[in-house]
Records
---
Amino acid sequence: QVHLVESGGGLVQGGGSLRLSCVAFGRTLSNRAMGWFRQPPGKEREFVAAISWNGGSTAYTDSVKGRFTISRDNTKNTVYLQMNNLKPEDTAVYYCASDPKSSFLLRSGVDYYDSWGQGTQVTVSS
């Protein structure tokens, strides 16, 4: 079982930027697709972005396209989420997770992913 640890969250004004990191311990992630999800207050967890095992393919939910960028460094067993032009509606706990059955296919359903981290809080003020 892989253990994921997210970091980089915080409080930021609207229009600002944050870079989230997700480090994996226990096993390599280099053969797995990875995803970022978020859970706004009082709402269900939702898909944000995903990346294939080698970074060659990425996918985003419509609301973050053009503002967020997912990337990975397999030498560091780390996945990143660069978030620019943040909006109050981006406020949520952000989680990373690995897709144990996919290297290339990018899936948005929560149930496809396992090894969830503890999450990192992102709060965007207006």
---
Amino acid sequence: QVQLVESGGGLVQAGGSLRLSCAASGRAAGSYAMGWFRQAPGKERELVATISWSGRNTYYADSVKGRFTISRDNAKNPVYLQMNSLKPEDTAVYYCASHFSYSGNSYYTSARDYSDWGQGTQVTVSS
């Protein structure tokens, strides 16, 4: 059974930084694109960033571009989300998600593309 476990969330002041991690276990061998999503109270889940299996290709939501960085190391696990210059509007539960991909260089921007999800980690940014 696939498990994705996020960590690194917490409370931070506006302008601060956090680094989220997502560790996967139980997956079959293969290539997996990864995504970070977030959901604020009363809002729909939205894509934050996604990265291809190779790590060479990434995509960011406009709201986080230039502030957040998604990465993965050579072992491809875990996947990180470095969040800098945090704003109160970044407050949400952050989820990582996994997509089995035959293409090592593709990323995926729709939540429907992802088959496995973590339980989420709360990020709260105070003003």
---
Amino acid sequence: QVQLVESGGGLVQAGDSLRLSCTASVRTFTTYVIGWFRQTPGKEREFVAAIKWSGRRSQYADSIKDRFTISRDNAENTVYLQMNSLKPEDTAVYYCARRMTAYYSGTSYGLSSDYDYWGQGTQVTVSA
């Protein structure tokens, strides 16, 4: 059973930074694409960023490009999302998830239906 645990959320002001962490319970985490999604009430879950199992490729949503950076430390079974220059519209619950298919070599990272294991989410609130 794969468990993903997010941490690092909180209440910050516009322009501040936060770093979210996603830690997995199993070693095989290192062979999967890991993604970050976010969701606000009444809206669908939105893709934020994802990183290849090797760490050599990442994708970002246009809305956060140049402000957020995804990285991973496979030795620690952890993926990070560094969020800078936060805006009120970044307020959401942030989820990390594991994409299906070990050693996935394709380029499709943005569909939530392609992810099979999800964390419980961490709230990020950005005040104006």
---
Amino acid sequence: QVLLRESGGGLVQTGGSLRLSCVASEYSKSDRVMGWFRQTPGKERQFVATISRTADSTDYADSVKGRFTISRDNIANAVYLQMNSLKPEDTAVYYCAARSSFYSSASSLAYEYDYWGQGTQVTVSS
């Protein structure tokens, strides 16, 4: 069982920045492929960013490329999402997700993730 806890969401003005954190807790520590997704009411969960187990590979949704950066600290068992130049359309609940430890490749597909956090609200005011 893997428990994921996000933090760092909040209210920010257009053009501002936020840094989301996600800490994973599990009985036997295992580096996992991690991802960030976001969701707004009435819409499907949307891919934001993903990072491989060793951080040698990352991928981003086109809508956030050049503005968001995903990173990880395997010692701390944490993954981060630095969000710059925020826009009102970035407003959503942001979820951290982890793949089974069997997989090493980053993934943009929500159904390939086995564990999810409870989400953190990000609101960007215009």
